[in-house]
Amino acid sequence: MNIKSLLLGSAAALIAVSGARAADAVVVAEPEPAEYVKICDVYGAGYFYIPGTETCLRIGGYLRYDIGVGDSGTLDGVNNVGDHMDGGNHDTYYKNMRFTLRTYTGQETELGTLKTFTETRFQFGNSSGDYDGSSSTSWQAGNKTTSLNFAWIQLGGLRVGKDETAYDQFIGYAGNVIQDTIIPYGVKDTNVVQYYFDAGSGFTGVVSLEEGTGVNTIDSYVPHVVGGLKYKGDWGAITGVVAYDSNYEEVAGKVRLDVNVSKELSLFIMGGYGTDDNLTDDAHNAIDVHGRSQYKPWGGNWAVWGGGTYKFNEKTSFNVQASADDDKNYALAANVAYTIVPGFTVTTEVDWDHYGNFGNPSIYGNWSKADKKDSVGGIIRFQRNF
């Protein structure tokens, strides 16, 4: 009896221990709750919250493929190169492929909206121009220099970093043509300290302290200064900007009028004027001859640009721009832009100019005042925005 009870008790104990061990073996830790990306619709489409933060992020950009033909005096034209087999000169396409990556962030703070924006461009292709085929290799396609076009931080109305000058950006550049700078209206790249303000009732403004770029970079502690004021209504807008060039102690300005004639037709005209009393001094004669500078890159004292856009339908628009300056340079550009599907647009453009430049050919062209020429060219652009 005692032995039987002992055996039964031992068996029960073994079963209990085995059951406990089996239970321990199949226990699985509960998974951590997954944190999914949440949509942020505060700043527009495409933003999402960076997990674990209150910062909204958007990633975008575009792919662009350009094919240029025609005389190099007008646009990104053809190259005159040596034939590989017989050494004779031939024209070939200008082609360029660009990948642009953009990032945007936004976050609300007690001091206002904190925003950032970056844009980096990667390109492959050849350079435009006329070459004799003997020494220049610019007609050869290859990877080009990667460029940082934008990288700024903005809190409320205060913006600092790499941007395009307010002298161009605030006034709205020029027309909707590809080659809108045949008669140039500004030199865009610069580091800035800016303040944007909204006065209400359609009035906005900007004050910008700028470093300049290239040969127009400031040569002292005194920055270039740009100020702008805009009034915008349902009918259109009127904008003015004025700039002080600290290198030469010169002043330039532009005024622009935009008119919405109808839902299909919009027109604009922009005029620029700048002083050039100090721009031909001997110290800078090799570069800035005949009054060209950061804020007055056109020839002579004045320049004018005008044109418009007509939308045939939601997919197709016609764009045109005419321009001229005090040095008797003239240009005309026109294109048709067609959106095949949302986000993918093909633009076909034709350009003409009567042009000749002063100064350094690598910056302003290859012709002197006495050697103006008429040029015609064209470009086809395929662009996918995302």
What structural class results from the helix and strand content? mainly beta
Q: Enumerate how many helices there are, as a single number.
A: 3
Percentage of residues in helical conformation: under 10%
The major sheet is characterized as: 16 strands, antiparallel, barrel
Proportion of residues in β-strands: over 45%
Low-pLDDT sequence parts? 281-289, 358-370
CA-based shape: globular
Q: List the secondary-structure elements in sequence, H or E.
A: HEEEEEEEEEHEEEEEEEEEEHE
Give the CA-CA distance, first to last residue. 86 Å
Give the class-level CATH name of the domain at 157-372: Mainly Beta
Let me know the average pLDDT: 84
- The CATH architecture assignment of the domain at 157-372 turns out to be Beta Barrel
GO molecular function, one term: porin activity
GO biological process, one term: monoatomic ion transport
Pfam family, one: Porin_2
Keywords: Cell outer membrane, Ion transport, Membrane, Porin, Receptor, Signal, Transmembrane, Transmembrane beta strand, Transport
Compile the SSE list and pairings.
Blueprint: H1 2-25, E1 48-49, E2 56-70, E3 79-82, E4 89-92, E5 94-109, E6 112-125, E7 142-143, E8 147-155, E9 158-164, H2 166-169, E10 189-200, E11 203-210, E12 224-233, E13 236-245, E14 250-260, E15 265-274, E16 302-311, E17 316-325, E18 330-341, E19 344-355, H3 361-364, E20 373-385
Antiparallel strand pairs: 1-2, 2-5, 2-20, 3-4, 5-6, 6-7, 6-8, 8-9, 9-10, 10-11, 11-12, 12-13, 13-14, 14-15, 15-16, 16-17, 17-18, 18-19, 19-20
